[in-house]
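Changelog-linked ticket: flavin-adenine dinucleotide example.
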Amino acid sequence: MQQFDAIVIGAGYGGASVAALLAHAGKRVALLDRMPRAAGKVQWLDRRGYKIEAFGAVGIPAENSRFHELAALLGFGERAEFIFPQGDMARIYYKSKSDGWRTMLTGLKPSEFNPESMERLKQTLGVGDEDIMAMASVYATAMALSDEEIADLDDTRFSDWLRPFGLPRAMVDHLGLTMNALFTVTTDQLAASEAVFTLRQLVLGGAGRYQKGGYGRLAEMCAEYVAEHGGVYRPRETVSEILVENGRAVGVLTKNGEELRAHAIISNAGIQPTVLQLAGPAHFPADYVERVRRLVPSLSIAGCRYVLDTPLFEGAFITIFSDEGHLDDPAWAAMLRGEWPEVPPIVIDVETAFDPDMSPVPGHQIANFQVFVSADPKSPMADEAIERAERVIEELYPTLKQHLIRREPYGPRMISSMTRDSAVPGAGGEAVGLAQIVGQIGKHKPDARTPLAGLYLVGCDAGGRGAGTHQAVDSGFNVAAMVLEDL
Ligand SMILES: Cc1cc2nc3c(=O)[nH]c(=O)nc-3n(C[C@H](O)[C@H](O)[C@H](O)COP(=O)(O)OP(=O)(O)OC[C@H]3O[C@@H](n4cnc5c(N)ncnc54)[C@H](O)[C@@H]3O)c2cc1C
Protein backbone atom coordinates (compact mmCIF):
# COMPACT_ATOMS: atom_id res chain seq x y z
CA MET A 1 0.00 0.00 0.00
CA GLN A 2 1.44 3.37 -1.06
CA GLN A 3 1.11 6.53 1.05
CA PHE A 4 0.93 10.04 -0.46
CA ASP A 5 0.24 13.54 0.79
CA ALA A 6 -2.55 13.90 -1.77
CA ILE A 7 -4.33 11.67 -4.28
CA VAL A 8 -6.03 13.42 -7.20
CA ILE A 9 -8.75 11.48 -9.02
CA GLY A 10 -8.85 12.68 -12.63
CA ALA A 11 -6.36 14.64 -14.74
CA GLY A 12 -8.76 17.09 -16.39
CA TYR A 13 -7.60 20.70 -16.20
CA GLY A 14 -8.83 20.94 -12.60
CA GLY A 15 -7.13 17.74 -11.43
CA ALA A 16 -3.90 18.17 -13.39
CA SER A 17 -3.41 21.76 -12.22
CA VAL A 18 -4.10 21.08 -8.52
CA ALA A 19 -1.78 18.03 -8.63
CA ALA A 20 1.09 19.99 -10.20
CA LEU A 21 0.62 22.92 -7.80
CA LEU A 22 0.77 20.59 -4.80
CA ALA A 23 3.87 18.88 -6.23
CA HIS A 24 5.37 22.35 -6.73
CA ALA A 25 4.76 23.00 -3.01
CA GLY A 26 6.78 19.88 -2.16
CA LYS A 27 3.92 17.45 -1.59
CA ARG A 28 4.01 13.84 -2.77
CA VAL A 29 1.07 13.47 -5.11
CA ALA A 30 -0.60 10.58 -6.96
CA LEU A 31 -2.56 11.67 -10.04
CA LEU A 32 -4.82 8.96 -11.50
CA ASP A 33 -6.94 9.15 -14.63
CA ARG A 34 -8.91 6.47 -16.38
CA MET A 35 -8.03 7.81 -19.84
CA PRO A 36 -4.72 7.19 -21.65
CA ARG A 37 -4.04 10.92 -21.91
CA ALA A 38 -4.50 13.86 -19.50
CA ALA A 39 -6.76 16.91 -20.08
CA GLY A 40 -10.24 15.36 -19.67
CA LYS A 41 -12.71 17.15 -21.91
CA VAL A 42 -9.94 18.87 -23.85
CA GLN A 43 -7.73 15.87 -24.56
CA TRP A 44 -6.70 15.11 -28.12
CA LEU A 45 -7.17 11.88 -30.02
CA ASP A 46 -4.60 10.27 -32.28
CA ARG A 47 -6.14 9.37 -35.62
CA ARG A 48 -3.43 8.08 -37.97
CA GLY A 49 -1.14 10.94 -37.00
CA TYR A 50 -3.84 13.63 -37.03
CA LYS A 51 -4.10 15.14 -33.54
CA ILE A 52 -7.81 15.75 -33.24
CA GLU A 53 -9.33 17.69 -30.34
CA ALA A 54 -11.84 15.34 -28.73
CA PHE A 55 -14.47 17.97 -28.08
CA GLY A 56 -13.30 21.40 -29.20
CA ALA A 57 -11.28 24.07 -27.50
CA VAL A 58 -10.96 27.82 -27.69
CA GLY A 59 -10.00 29.60 -24.48
CA ILE A 60 -11.32 32.81 -22.99
CA PRO A 61 -9.46 34.88 -21.95
CA ALA A 62 -6.70 34.37 -24.50
CA GLU A 63 -4.10 36.49 -22.69
CA ASN A 64 -3.36 37.23 -19.03
CA SER A 65 -5.08 34.01 -18.02
CA ARG A 66 -4.77 31.44 -15.23
CA PHE A 67 -3.10 29.20 -17.88
CA HIS A 68 -0.29 31.74 -18.26
CA GLU A 69 0.01 32.01 -14.47
CA LEU A 70 0.22 28.22 -14.13
CA ALA A 71 2.86 27.82 -16.85
CA ALA A 72 4.95 30.63 -15.33
CA LEU A 73 4.73 29.29 -11.76
CA LEU A 74 5.71 25.76 -12.81
CA GLY A 75 8.62 27.14 -14.85
CA PHE A 76 7.48 25.73 -18.20
CA GLY A 77 8.87 28.76 -20.03
CA GLU A 78 8.77 28.49 -23.78
CA ARG A 79 7.78 24.82 -23.66
CA ALA A 80 4.23 26.07 -23.00
CA GLU A 81 3.76 27.96 -26.23
CA PHE A 82 0.42 29.72 -26.25
CA ILE A 83 -1.09 30.65 -29.59
CA PHE A 84 -3.40 33.58 -30.04
CA PRO A 85 -4.47 34.33 -33.60
CA GLN A 86 -4.20 37.99 -34.50
CA GLY A 87 -6.37 39.71 -37.06
CA ASP A 88 -9.71 38.72 -38.56
CA MET A 89 -9.92 35.10 -37.40
CA ALA A 90 -13.58 34.92 -36.36
CA ARG A 91 -16.34 34.46 -38.92
CA ILE A 92 -19.98 35.20 -38.22
CA TYR A 93 -22.85 33.84 -40.34
CA TYR A 94 -26.24 35.35 -39.65
CA LYS A 95 -29.41 34.39 -41.49
CA SER A 96 -32.36 36.74 -41.57
CA LYS A 97 -35.76 35.67 -42.89
CA SER A 98 -35.93 38.67 -45.20
CA ASP A 99 -32.40 38.74 -46.72
CA GLY A 100 -30.95 35.25 -46.22
CA TRP A 101 -27.33 34.76 -45.17
CA ARG A 102 -24.98 37.61 -44.29
CA THR A 103 -21.41 37.02 -43.19
CA MET A 104 -18.35 38.85 -41.92
CA LEU A 105 -14.86 38.23 -40.61
CA THR A 106 -13.76 39.96 -37.43
CA GLY A 107 -11.08 39.94 -34.73
CA LEU A 108 -11.21 37.84 -31.58
CA LYS A 109 -10.48 40.74 -29.28
CA PRO A 110 -12.64 43.82 -28.64
CA SER A 111 -9.52 46.02 -29.00
CA GLU A 112 -9.26 44.80 -32.60
CA PHE A 113 -12.69 46.24 -33.33
CA ASN A 114 -12.30 49.36 -35.47
CA PRO A 115 -14.66 51.56 -37.49
CA GLU A 116 -14.36 49.20 -40.43
CA SER A 117 -15.24 46.07 -38.45
CA MET A 118 -18.08 47.96 -36.72
CA GLU A 119 -19.46 48.83 -40.16
CA ARG A 120 -19.30 45.13 -41.14
CA LEU A 121 -21.05 44.17 -37.90
CA LYS A 122 -23.81 46.73 -38.55
CA GLN A 123 -24.39 45.35 -42.03
CA THR A 124 -24.26 41.71 -40.98
CA LEU A 125 -26.67 42.09 -38.07
CA GLY A 126 -28.74 44.82 -39.75
CA VAL A 127 -28.30 47.28 -36.85
CA GLY A 128 -27.54 51.01 -36.58
CA ASP A 129 -25.03 53.30 -34.87
CA GLU A 130 -27.21 53.70 -31.78
CA ASP A 131 -27.29 49.90 -31.40
CA ILE A 132 -23.49 49.72 -31.53
CA MET A 133 -23.44 52.41 -28.81
CA ALA A 134 -25.85 50.32 -26.71
CA MET A 135 -23.54 47.30 -27.09
CA ALA A 136 -20.54 49.45 -26.10
CA SER A 137 -22.50 50.45 -23.03
CA VAL A 138 -22.97 46.76 -22.07
CA TYR A 139 -19.19 46.26 -22.11
CA ALA A 140 -18.51 49.60 -20.38
CA THR A 141 -20.95 48.75 -17.59
CA ALA A 142 -19.38 45.31 -17.14
CA MET A 143 -15.95 46.93 -16.89
CA ALA A 144 -17.10 49.56 -14.38
CA LEU A 145 -18.64 47.15 -11.86
CA SER A 146 -16.67 46.43 -8.69
CA ASP A 147 -16.06 42.84 -7.55
CA GLU A 148 -18.74 43.31 -4.86
CA GLU A 149 -21.24 44.57 -7.42
CA ILE A 150 -20.52 41.56 -9.62
CA ALA A 151 -21.01 39.21 -6.65
CA ASP A 152 -24.37 40.90 -6.05
CA LEU A 153 -25.44 39.60 -9.49
CA ASP A 154 -25.32 35.94 -8.38
CA ASP A 155 -29.11 35.89 -8.15
CA THR A 156 -29.76 37.87 -11.33
CA ARG A 157 -30.39 36.12 -14.63
CA PHE A 158 -28.15 37.31 -17.47
CA SER A 159 -31.20 37.93 -19.69
CA ASP A 160 -32.69 40.23 -17.01
CA TRP A 161 -29.38 42.08 -16.58
CA LEU A 162 -29.09 42.66 -20.33
CA ARG A 163 -32.67 43.81 -21.01
CA PRO A 164 -32.38 47.46 -19.81
CA PHE A 165 -29.61 48.14 -22.37
CA GLY A 166 -32.26 47.95 -25.09
CA LEU A 167 -30.19 46.01 -27.62
CA PRO A 168 -31.91 45.03 -30.86
CA ARG A 169 -32.83 41.35 -31.20
CA ALA A 170 -29.92 40.49 -33.51
CA MET A 171 -27.42 41.82 -30.98
CA VAL A 172 -29.10 40.06 -28.08
CA ASP A 173 -28.84 36.87 -30.14
CA HIS A 174 -25.18 37.49 -30.97
CA LEU A 175 -24.20 38.14 -27.36
CA GLY A 176 -26.59 35.40 -26.22
CA LEU A 177 -24.92 32.82 -28.47
CA THR A 178 -21.51 33.88 -27.13
CA MET A 179 -22.82 33.24 -23.61
CA ASN A 180 -24.41 29.91 -24.67
CA ALA A 181 -21.06 28.83 -26.09
CA LEU A 182 -19.05 29.97 -23.07
CA PHE A 183 -21.26 28.44 -20.39
CA THR A 184 -23.44 25.86 -22.21
CA VAL A 185 -26.59 27.04 -20.46
CA THR A 186 -29.55 29.17 -21.55
CA THR A 187 -29.29 32.92 -21.08
CA ASP A 188 -32.40 32.80 -18.88
CA GLN A 189 -30.64 30.51 -16.44
CA LEU A 190 -27.12 31.91 -16.60
CA ALA A 191 -26.13 33.90 -13.49
CA ALA A 192 -25.25 37.48 -14.51
CA SER A 193 -22.28 37.44 -12.10
CA GLU A 194 -20.50 34.71 -14.09
CA ALA A 195 -21.42 36.33 -17.41
CA VAL A 196 -20.17 39.79 -16.42
CA PHE A 197 -16.97 38.37 -14.89
CA THR A 198 -16.19 36.60 -18.17
CA LEU A 199 -17.20 39.59 -20.35
CA ARG A 200 -14.56 41.56 -18.48
CA GLN A 201 -11.97 38.86 -19.13
CA LEU A 202 -12.95 38.97 -22.79
CA VAL A 203 -12.37 42.71 -22.98
CA LEU A 204 -9.04 42.49 -21.15
CA GLY A 205 -7.69 39.29 -22.66
CA GLY A 206 -9.57 38.55 -25.88
CA ALA A 207 -10.79 35.16 -27.05
CA GLY A 208 -9.16 32.22 -28.75
CA ARG A 209 -6.18 31.01 -26.77
CA TYR A 210 -4.74 27.72 -27.98
CA GLN A 211 -1.54 25.86 -27.22
CA LYS A 212 1.06 24.40 -29.52
CA GLY A 213 0.50 20.64 -29.50
CA GLY A 214 -3.16 20.81 -28.48
CA TYR A 215 -5.44 22.69 -26.15
CA GLY A 216 -4.83 20.10 -23.42
CA ARG A 217 -1.04 20.27 -23.66
CA LEU A 218 -0.66 22.24 -20.42
CA ALA A 219 -2.63 19.55 -18.53
CA GLU A 220 -0.29 16.92 -19.98
CA MET A 221 2.69 19.01 -18.86
CA CYS A 222 1.19 19.27 -15.36
CA ALA A 223 0.82 15.48 -15.20
CA GLU A 224 4.45 15.03 -16.33
CA TYR A 225 5.49 17.63 -13.72
CA VAL A 226 3.90 15.54 -10.94
CA ALA A 227 5.87 12.45 -12.04
CA GLU A 228 9.10 14.48 -12.25
CA HIS A 229 8.63 15.98 -8.77
CA GLY A 230 8.46 12.99 -6.46
CA GLY A 231 4.90 11.95 -7.31
CA VAL A 232 3.14 9.45 -9.53
CA TYR A 233 1.03 9.99 -12.65
CA ARG A 234 -0.94 6.96 -13.74
CA PRO A 235 -3.03 7.12 -16.90
CA ARG A 236 -5.50 4.27 -17.60
CA GLU A 237 -6.16 4.00 -13.85
CA THR A 238 -9.80 4.07 -12.79
CA VAL A 239 -10.70 4.84 -9.18
CA SER A 240 -13.64 2.71 -8.12
CA GLU A 241 -13.99 3.79 -4.48
CA ILE A 242 -12.94 6.50 -2.03
CA LEU A 243 -11.94 4.81 1.22
CA VAL A 244 -13.43 6.26 4.40
CA GLU A 245 -12.34 5.44 7.95
CA ASN A 246 -13.59 7.04 11.16
CA GLY A 247 -15.45 9.76 9.28
CA ARG A 248 -12.46 10.74 7.13
CA ALA A 249 -11.45 10.08 3.50
CA VAL A 250 -8.16 8.21 3.76
CA GLY A 251 -7.47 6.74 0.34
CA VAL A 252 -8.76 5.23 -2.88
CA LEU A 253 -9.30 1.78 -4.28
CA THR A 254 -8.49 1.35 -7.95
CA LYS A 255 -10.40 -0.84 -10.38
CA ASN A 256 -7.46 -3.26 -10.26
CA GLY A 257 -7.97 -3.66 -6.53
CA GLU A 258 -4.97 -1.60 -5.42
CA GLU A 259 -5.25 0.60 -2.34
CA LEU A 260 -3.52 4.01 -2.21
CA ARG A 261 -3.61 6.21 0.89
CA ALA A 262 -3.24 9.97 1.44
CA HIS A 263 -4.04 12.80 3.84
CA ALA A 264 -6.08 14.60 1.19
CA ILE A 265 -8.26 13.04 -1.53
CA ILE A 266 -9.11 15.50 -4.30
CA SER A 267 -11.70 14.49 -6.84
CA ASN A 268 -11.96 15.87 -10.40
CA ALA A 269 -14.55 13.20 -11.25
CA GLY A 270 -17.55 15.51 -10.70
CA ILE A 271 -19.45 16.26 -7.51
CA GLN A 272 -22.33 13.88 -8.21
CA PRO A 273 -20.19 10.82 -9.10
CA THR A 274 -17.82 11.61 -6.20
CA VAL A 275 -20.44 11.95 -3.47
CA LEU A 276 -23.08 9.55 -4.72
CA GLN A 277 -20.86 6.77 -6.11
CA LEU A 278 -17.15 6.92 -5.26
CA ALA A 279 -17.50 7.83 -1.56
CA GLY A 280 -21.17 6.92 -1.15
CA PRO A 281 -24.03 8.97 0.34
CA ALA A 282 -23.79 7.29 3.76
CA HIS A 283 -20.71 9.39 4.57
CA PHE A 284 -22.39 12.79 4.13
CA PRO A 285 -25.19 14.65 5.93
CA ALA A 286 -28.59 13.84 4.38
CA ASP A 287 -29.33 17.47 3.38
CA TYR A 288 -25.96 17.71 1.57
CA VAL A 289 -26.67 14.51 -0.35
CA GLU A 290 -30.10 15.80 -1.31
CA ARG A 291 -28.58 19.08 -2.53
CA VAL A 292 -25.94 17.22 -4.56
CA ARG A 293 -28.62 15.08 -6.20
CA ARG A 294 -30.57 18.18 -7.22
CA LEU A 295 -27.64 20.13 -8.70
CA VAL A 296 -28.30 21.05 -12.32
CA PRO A 297 -25.61 20.12 -14.85
CA SER A 298 -24.75 22.36 -17.78
CA LEU A 299 -26.20 21.35 -21.14
CA SER A 300 -24.14 19.18 -23.42
CA ILE A 301 -22.73 19.55 -26.90
CA ALA A 302 -22.97 17.25 -29.88
CA GLY A 303 -21.00 17.67 -33.05
CA CYS A 304 -18.55 16.20 -35.50
CA ARG A 305 -14.80 16.12 -35.79
CA TYR A 306 -13.74 16.66 -39.37
CA VAL A 307 -10.48 16.12 -41.21
CA LEU A 308 -10.56 17.88 -44.59
CA ASP A 309 -8.15 17.68 -47.52
CA THR A 310 -8.23 21.48 -47.94
CA PRO A 311 -8.61 24.59 -45.72
CA LEU A 312 -12.35 24.85 -46.32
CA PHE A 313 -13.27 26.86 -43.24
CA GLU A 314 -11.74 30.32 -43.14
CA GLY A 315 -10.73 31.73 -39.78
CA ALA A 316 -10.26 29.92 -36.50
CA PHE A 317 -13.66 30.28 -34.92
CA ILE A 318 -17.03 30.42 -36.71
CA THR A 319 -20.44 31.20 -35.24
CA ILE A 320 -23.63 30.47 -37.16
CA PHE A 321 -27.03 31.71 -36.05
CA SER A 322 -30.19 33.32 -37.34
CA ASP A 323 -33.01 35.66 -36.43
CA GLU A 324 -34.72 32.62 -34.90
CA GLY A 325 -32.60 33.45 -31.88
CA HIS A 326 -30.05 32.13 -29.43
CA LEU A 327 -30.64 29.60 -26.66
CA ASP A 328 -32.98 31.08 -24.07
CA ASP A 329 -35.46 29.07 -21.99
CA PRO A 330 -38.32 29.11 -24.55
CA ALA A 331 -35.96 28.11 -27.39
CA TRP A 332 -34.50 25.27 -25.30
CA ALA A 333 -37.95 24.06 -24.20
CA ALA A 334 -39.04 23.98 -27.86
CA MET A 335 -35.94 21.97 -28.84
CA LEU A 336 -36.67 19.47 -26.06
CA ARG A 337 -40.18 19.08 -27.54
CA GLY A 338 -38.58 18.34 -30.90
CA GLU A 339 -39.40 21.77 -32.37
CA TRP A 340 -36.05 22.81 -33.81
CA PRO A 341 -35.17 26.15 -35.35
CA GLU A 342 -34.18 25.93 -39.02
CA VAL A 343 -30.72 27.15 -37.94
CA PRO A 344 -29.76 25.72 -34.55
CA PRO A 345 -26.97 27.89 -33.06
CA ILE A 346 -23.67 26.35 -34.25
CA VAL A 347 -20.03 26.97 -33.38
CA ILE A 348 -17.06 25.66 -35.40
CA ASP A 349 -13.51 25.47 -33.98
CA VAL A 350 -10.74 25.12 -36.57
CA GLU A 351 -7.77 23.75 -34.63
CA THR A 352 -5.33 23.81 -37.56
CA ALA A 353 -5.93 27.55 -37.89
CA PHE A 354 -4.28 27.79 -34.46
CA ASP A 355 -1.65 25.08 -34.88
CA PRO A 356 -1.18 23.72 -38.43
CA ASP A 357 1.13 21.00 -37.05
CA MET A 358 -1.87 19.19 -35.55
CA SER A 359 -2.20 17.75 -39.07
CA PRO A 360 0.66 15.56 -40.34
CA VAL A 361 -0.19 16.65 -43.89
CA PRO A 362 0.41 20.33 -44.69
CA GLY A 363 -2.76 22.04 -45.93
CA HIS A 364 -5.16 19.52 -44.40
CA GLN A 365 -7.66 21.05 -42.02
CA ILE A 366 -9.01 19.72 -38.73
CA ALA A 367 -12.25 21.29 -37.48
CA ASN A 368 -15.00 20.50 -35.03
CA PHE A 369 -18.59 21.77 -35.06
CA GLN A 370 -20.78 21.99 -31.99
CA VAL A 371 -24.52 22.26 -31.27
CA PHE A 372 -26.29 22.30 -27.90
CA VAL A 373 -28.07 19.19 -26.66
CA SER A 374 -29.22 17.64 -23.39
CA ALA A 375 -26.60 16.42 -20.89
CA ASP A 376 -28.42 13.10 -20.66
CA PRO A 377 -26.13 10.40 -22.10
CA LYS A 378 -29.28 8.44 -23.02
CA SER A 379 -30.95 11.33 -24.88
CA PRO A 380 -31.55 10.69 -28.61
CA MET A 381 -31.24 14.46 -29.26
CA ALA A 382 -27.61 14.35 -30.46
CA ASP A 383 -28.29 12.51 -33.73
CA GLU A 384 -30.96 14.96 -34.79
CA ALA A 385 -28.89 17.99 -33.72
CA ILE A 386 -25.93 16.78 -35.78
CA GLU A 387 -28.09 16.11 -38.83
CA ARG A 388 -29.72 19.54 -38.65
CA ALA A 389 -26.45 21.38 -38.04
CA GLU A 390 -24.72 19.56 -40.87
CA ARG A 391 -27.52 20.54 -43.25
CA VAL A 392 -26.84 24.21 -42.41
CA ILE A 393 -23.05 23.82 -42.68
CA GLU A 394 -23.42 22.15 -46.09
CA GLU A 395 -25.62 25.01 -47.24
CA LEU A 396 -22.78 27.41 -46.37
CA TYR A 397 -19.98 25.11 -47.54
CA PRO A 398 -21.49 23.07 -50.41
CA THR A 399 -18.21 21.24 -51.13
CA LEU A 400 -17.86 19.98 -47.54
CA LYS A 401 -18.58 16.33 -48.32
CA GLN A 402 -16.14 16.09 -51.19
CA HIS A 403 -13.29 17.34 -48.98
CA LEU A 404 -13.99 15.07 -46.00
CA ILE A 405 -11.23 12.61 -45.15
CA ARG A 406 -12.67 11.75 -41.78
CA ARG A 407 -15.95 12.46 -39.98
CA GLU A 408 -16.49 11.48 -36.33
CA PRO A 409 -19.79 12.38 -34.65
CA TYR A 410 -19.90 12.69 -30.87
CA GLY A 411 -22.35 13.67 -28.16
CA PRO A 412 -23.16 13.39 -24.45
CA ARG A 413 -22.82 9.60 -24.39
CA MET A 414 -19.19 9.82 -25.47
CA ILE A 415 -18.47 12.85 -23.25
CA SER A 416 -19.78 10.89 -20.26
CA SER A 417 -17.89 7.69 -21.08
CA MET A 418 -14.65 9.64 -21.50
CA THR A 419 -14.91 12.09 -18.62
CA ARG A 420 -17.73 11.76 -16.11
CA ASP A 421 -20.04 8.97 -14.93
CA SER A 422 -23.78 9.45 -14.92
CA ALA A 423 -24.65 9.43 -11.21
CA VAL A 424 -28.17 10.90 -11.44
CA PRO A 425 -30.69 10.53 -14.27
CA GLY A 426 -30.12 13.12 -17.02
CA ALA A 427 -26.54 13.96 -16.04
CA GLY A 428 -23.04 12.81 -17.02
CA GLY A 429 -22.71 14.24 -20.53
CA GLU A 430 -22.54 17.87 -19.41
CA ALA A 431 -20.04 19.95 -21.37
CA VAL A 432 -18.79 22.03 -18.45
CA GLY A 433 -19.87 20.51 -15.12
CA LEU A 434 -22.22 22.14 -12.69
CA ALA A 435 -24.28 24.70 -14.63
CA GLN A 436 -23.28 28.30 -13.83
CA ILE A 437 -26.87 29.22 -13.16
CA VAL A 438 -28.78 31.23 -10.60
CA GLY A 439 -29.00 29.29 -7.32
CA GLN A 440 -25.77 27.31 -7.63
CA ILE A 441 -23.09 29.86 -8.33
CA GLY A 442 -20.99 32.29 -6.28
CA LYS A 443 -22.06 32.11 -2.65
CA HIS A 444 -24.46 29.26 -3.57
CA LYS A 445 -21.82 27.09 -5.20
CA PRO A 446 -20.85 23.87 -3.37
CA ASP A 447 -17.72 24.27 -1.27
CA ALA A 448 -14.61 22.56 -2.62
CA ARG A 449 -14.12 21.24 0.94
CA THR A 450 -16.80 18.58 1.25
CA PRO A 451 -18.44 17.76 4.60
CA LEU A 452 -16.37 14.54 4.61
CA ALA A 453 -13.02 15.45 6.22
CA GLY A 454 -10.09 14.95 3.88
CA LEU A 455 -12.23 14.97 0.69
CA TYR A 456 -12.04 17.93 -1.72
CA LEU A 457 -13.56 18.68 -5.13
CA VAL A 458 -11.69 20.32 -7.98
CA GLY A 459 -12.66 21.35 -11.52
CA CYS A 460 -15.79 22.91 -12.90
CA ASP A 461 -18.04 21.82 -10.03
CA ALA A 462 -16.35 23.68 -7.19
CA GLY A 463 -13.61 26.11 -6.28
CA GLY A 464 -13.34 28.29 -9.39
CA ARG A 465 -15.06 30.67 -11.76
CA GLY A 466 -14.90 31.69 -15.40
CA ALA A 467 -15.51 29.94 -18.69
CA GLY A 468 -14.92 26.19 -19.13
CA THR A 469 -11.28 25.23 -18.81
CA HIS A 470 -10.45 28.56 -17.16
CA GLN A 471 -12.86 27.77 -14.37
CA ALA A 472 -11.16 24.37 -13.97
CA VAL A 473 -7.65 25.90 -13.69
CA ASP A 474 -8.90 28.66 -11.38
CA SER A 475 -10.30 25.89 -9.20
CA GLY A 476 -6.92 24.09 -9.36
CA PHE A 477 -5.22 27.18 -7.89
CA ASN A 478 -7.84 27.76 -5.20
CA VAL A 479 -8.11 24.13 -4.12
CA ALA A 480 -4.31 23.75 -3.97
CA ALA A 481 -4.21 26.71 -1.54
CA MET A 482 -7.04 25.20 0.50
CA VAL A 483 -5.40 21.75 0.74
CA LEU A 484 -2.00 23.24 1.64
CA GLU A 485 -3.67 25.20 4.42
CA ASP A 486 -5.32 22.03 5.76
CA LEU A 487 -2.38 19.61 5.44
C1 LIG B 1 -17.79 19.60 -26.79
C2 LIG B 1 -17.15 20.48 -25.76
C3 LIG B 1 -16.56 21.67 -26.15
C4 LIG B 1 -15.95 22.49 -25.20
N1 LIG B 1 -15.32 23.62 -25.62
C5 LIG B 1 -14.63 24.35 -24.72
C6 LIG B 1 -13.85 25.46 -25.15
O1 LIG B 1 -13.76 25.74 -26.34
N2 LIG B 1 -13.19 26.19 -24.21
C7 LIG B 1 -13.27 25.89 -22.88
O2 LIG B 1 -12.64 26.57 -22.06
N3 LIG B 1 -14.01 24.85 -22.44
C8 LIG B 1 -14.68 24.08 -23.34
N4 LIG B 1 -15.42 23.01 -22.91
C9 LIG B 1 -15.60 22.81 -21.46
C10 LIG B 1 -14.33 22.30 -20.82
O3 LIG B 1 -13.81 21.27 -21.61
C11 LIG B 1 -14.61 21.83 -19.41
O4 LIG B 1 -15.28 22.86 -18.72
C12 LIG B 1 -13.33 21.50 -18.63
O5 LIG B 1 -12.39 20.88 -19.47
C13 LIG B 1 -13.67 20.61 -17.45
O6 LIG B 1 -12.50 20.39 -16.71
P1 LIG B 1 -12.56 19.60 -15.33
O7 LIG B 1 -11.23 19.66 -14.75
O8 LIG B 1 -13.69 20.11 -14.50
O9 LIG B 1 -12.96 18.09 -15.66
P2 LIG B 1 -12.89 17.09 -16.88
O10 LIG B 1 -12.27 17.66 -18.08
O11 LIG B 1 -14.26 16.52 -17.01
O12 LIG B 1 -11.91 15.95 -16.35
C14 LIG B 1 -12.31 14.98 -15.43
C15 LIG B 1 -11.27 13.87 -15.49
O13 LIG B 1 -11.56 12.91 -14.47
C16 LIG B 1 -11.34 11.61 -14.99
N5 LIG B 1 -12.14 10.67 -14.20
C17 LIG B 1 -13.47 10.71 -13.96
N6 LIG B 1 -13.84 9.71 -13.17
C18 LIG B 1 -12.71 9.01 -12.87
C19 LIG B 1 -12.44 7.86 -12.08
N7 LIG B 1 -13.40 7.23 -11.40
N8 LIG B 1 -11.16 7.41 -12.01
C20 LIG B 1 -10.16 8.04 -12.68
N9 LIG B 1 -10.36 9.13 -13.45
C21 LIG B 1 -11.62 9.61 -13.53
C22 LIG B 1 -11.78 11.71 -16.43
O14 LIG B 1 -11.20 10.69 -17.23
C23 LIG B 1 -11.30 13.11 -16.81
O15 LIG B 1 -9.99 13.08 -17.36
C24 LIG B 1 -16.00 22.13 -23.84
C25 LIG B 1 -16.58 20.93 -23.44
C26 LIG B 1 -17.14 20.10 -24.39
C27 LIG B 1 -17.72 18.79 -23.95
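Closing comment: Example verified and attached. The mean pLDDT is 95. The CA atoms of residues 68 and 470 lie 11 Å apart.
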